[in-house]
Amino acid sequence: MFKKRPKTDPSKPKNYAAIGYTVLFFLSLVHLSFEIYHDETESLARNIIIAGFMFSLSLFSWIIYYMHFKLYTKEFNSKNPV
Description:
Elements: H1 16-36, H2 44-79
């Protein structure tokens, strides 16, 4: 019913950039939630704006990297069939 996922080749390097972008994305989520529930109200709006900017920047960078990686591997695999 389901296709088996092919085993990864251990000789190929791991995709550390995707791991880094994913970690950055989740860290920005934690930072955003921390800044929203922060007790100091004097700079809460500024903190939310900074955290939202960090969140959106990491989200967009992750999406751009992911789409580039998918399109690049699709193009690469179509030129060099296994």
